[in-house]
Structure formats: C-alpha cells, structure tokens
Design a protein that fits this description.
Bound molecules: magnesium ion
Structural class: alpha/beta
Protein name: L-rhamnonate dehydratase
Pfam families: MR_MLE_C, MR_MLE_N
Distance between the termini: 28 Å
Keywords: Magnesium, Metal-binding
CATH topology of the largest domain: TIM Barrel
Organism: Sulfitobacter pacificus
Cofactor: Mg(2+)
CATH superfamily of the largest domain: Enolase-like C-terminal domain
Length: 390
C-alpha cells in the first residue's frame, strides 16, 4: 500500500473585490463589548487553508480549514504532518488518535482540532481516490436520491432588501431559508421590534410551506433570548441557531426546553464535546462543521451518537466534506447551502478556491457516484485574486 510521502499546506488570502457588510448585518458575540465597531468585523475571514497530502504513488488528497488559517498551517507543519508522513492513509482511525492524543494538552479543541480536521479530510479524500470511490460510498453509501438544501444568507438589511433577496432565492425552490438577526441585547425593545419585523417580512415572502431558520450567531444572551422566544413562536421557525456563546451549555439547555428547537455546534469540537451537548439536552439540531470538529472520522462518530439520541445532524456550511456525510447518513436530513456570491463574510470563498462543489438545482444537490474522493480539485481560475503563502 502506498504510504504518505508529503503534506503541503497553503494559506489563501483573498485580495479581490469584497462586498462590505453594512449596518446591523448580523448579531455576533462581540456585540457585548463597548466598542462594537463594524457589525461583523471580528468574524469576517478572507483566508482559507488547503492541506494536500500526497502518497508515494503521486495521489493527492485535499483537505481544508477556514478558522485562523495561519495558525492552523503552523500546527500542521510543525506537529501533525510529521505524525502522518510514512504512514498508511487507510489507518485513518489510528492516525486520528495519534494526532489527538499526542497534542492533547493543547490540541483537543480550537486550532489543534481544526488542524486535525484538515489532515483527516485530506486522508479521506485520498482513500476515495486510491479506491476509486466517492467518500460517501466509503461511509456507507447513498441514503437519499438527492440532498435537499436550505438557502443560507439573508443577512439583516432593510425589510425591502431582505424581501427582494428572499424573492430571488425562491426561484430556486429551496427547502428552507435561513436569515440572520441584526439586533441584540444592547438594542433594547426597539431592536427587538426591528428583529421581529424582519422575520415577519421574510415569512411574508417565503410563506409557511417551507422551513425558516433563524440565526443569532452568539449575538444574544440567555435573558434576551428568553424574552424573544415567545415573540418568535408564531413565525414557526424550524430552529433558533446559536442564541448564546458556545461555552454556555446550560444556557442552551434552558432555552431548548421551550417550544422552538435550539440548534448549535458549529463552534464545538470532537465526539466528547457533542456528548456533553447531548447529555445536557442542549440542542435539538447538531450543526458541527466537519473542517473544525475533527474531520470526517470524528463527524461519523458524532453522527452515530446523535442518531442514538434522535437528534438530527445538519452540518454547518456547504462544502463537500459535509455533503458526503449528509449523503451517507439517514439522520442528516438536509444540508446548509451558501449560494455562490461575491466575497462578503468569507463563507463564499471556497467557491473561488475549489472546483467541483455542486450547484443546488430546484432546492436539491447531488453527488457523483463515479467521482472518486470528495470530488473537488484546487482551481487556478481565481488564483490571481489571492496571495498564497506556503
Ligand atoms: Mg451558524
């Protein structure tokens, strides 16, 4: 069997045109500070990391990560790459444990686990390419004819702008729509009314025959969310996402006792992290992101645990690593889908780095049974718009 020969990491810094977010674009955790600055300042990211793992026979597996790419790159280069070089990629579970246990003191969450994720995703892509099978086949195969997706954008703007965006998105017949709140605790009653006005306006356009998801991006707190929940109930949201910061498991658990399902997990890590969320009944929908949570190896374990608890898993973000898991798991009913768009928050950046991500057609997307691995390649189409560091 071909052994791992090299690990190449690159950070892609977007230098092209960006759309500056305006006004109360999206509530976020920094809103609690006295210097709020521009709405998404601390959460906008215009960088991405790619991790290419090559075996002796020249096959290359591609992984990626979007959190703090410069730090994740250093962690891989210095710690994780030497642990996998010379190893057999099919020993993926052993390699995962090796990376996890040898850096446990600092790597079990955050930067370390994000780096493990990027390496693990590349290893799965490699296994697919070496066996000539798509990753979802290695994970157990197709559980759906196509993957239903929900449209994820609708950042807070004027009512008219949001309604126009929803109307435009409706043309593609999505299975659901997710909108972001622009106001939080510091905006008081007036901000509450602004939030509610926008939910009502979006519901007015999309109607009540499709799901509507509401995103707080950790910009609220327990008290504020408790006040908002009864006011939101009549709009029948599918879920309320990340109302409080990721560490406040007790807050999630308290809110999740109410009539609106609470979702979260895109800022949680590993099987053990999700065991804590499930034990506390903190979330009704799990939203890990495969390129943070510990890669496909960890995600698949969380899927099993979540299935036993009958809590659906709907991974954060589009992207192939999430789609393959969704395709192979009956407990993953739908995928998040970021529409192809000019670079704004940074969620869109992967469309400019990779080729092969499927477009949603009439609210569904499909994976190719005959494309080995994840089905993406690094593209040079927009390379002149990036500054790439190795
Ligand atoms: Mg989210």
């Amino acid at each position: 069997m071909s052994k791992i020969k090299s690990v190449r990491t690159r950070v892609w810094n977007w230098k092209g045109k960006t759309v500056p977010p305006t006004g109360n674009f999206c509530a976020n955790a920094s809103d609690a500070l006295y210097d709020r600055g521009d709405a998404m300042h601390s959460f906008r990211f215009h960088q991405w990391l790619t991790c290419e793992i090559e075996t002796e026979d020249g096959t290359i597996g591609i992984g990626n990560a979007a959190l703090a790419p410069n730090l994740v790159k250093a962690a891989i280069d210095e710690y994780y790459a030497p642990m996998v070089i010379g190893e057999d990629p099919f020993d993926y579970a052993y390699l995962w444990e090796k990376m996890y246990r040898r850096t446990h003191a600092w790597g079990r969450k955050g930067i370390g686990m994000t780096a493990i994720s990027a390496v693990d995703i590349a290893i799965w892509d490699l296994m697919g390419k070496l066996t000539g099978k798509p990753v979802f086949k290695l994970l157990g195969g197709r559980t759906k004819e196509k993957i239903p997706v929900y449209y994820s954008k609708l950042y807070a703007a004027s009512v008219e702008e949001m309604q126009a965006e929803a109307e435009e998105a409706m043309k593609n017949g999505y299975q659901g729509y997710k909108t972001r709140f622009g106001y939080g605790p510091k905006d008081g009653m007036k901000g509450m009314r602004e939030n509610l006005k926008r939910v009502e306006a979006v519901r007015e356009v999309v109607g009540y025959d499709v799901d509507l998801m509401l995103e707080c991006y950790m910009g609220w707190n327990l008290d504020y969310t408790k006040r908002m929940l009864p006011k939101l109930e009549k709009y029948e949201p599918r879920w309320l996402e990340e109302p409080v910061i990721a560490d406040d498991i007790h807050g999630y658990a308290e809110l999740n006792k109410g009539p609106i399902p609470i979702s979260g997990g895109e800022h949680e890590f590993s099987l053990m992290g999700f065991r804590q969320l499930l034990d506390a009944k903190a979330v009704s929908v799990i939203q890990y992101d495969t390129n943070r949570v510990g890669g496909i190896t960890a995600a698949q374990k969380i899927n099993a645990l979540a299935e036993a608890h009958q809590v659906p898993v709907i991974p954060h973000a589009g992207q192939m690593h999430n789609y393959h898991l969704t395709m192979a798991n009956v407990n993953c009913p739908i995928s998040e889908y970021f529409p192809v768009f000019d670079v704004e928050v940074g969620n869109e950046l992967f469309y400019y780095i990779f080729e092969g991500d499927p477009d949603a057609v009439d609210g569904f997307l499909d994976l190719d049974d005959n494309k080995p691995g994840l089905g993406i390649e690094i593209s040079d189409k927009y390379i002149s718009e990036f500054e790439v560091t190795e």
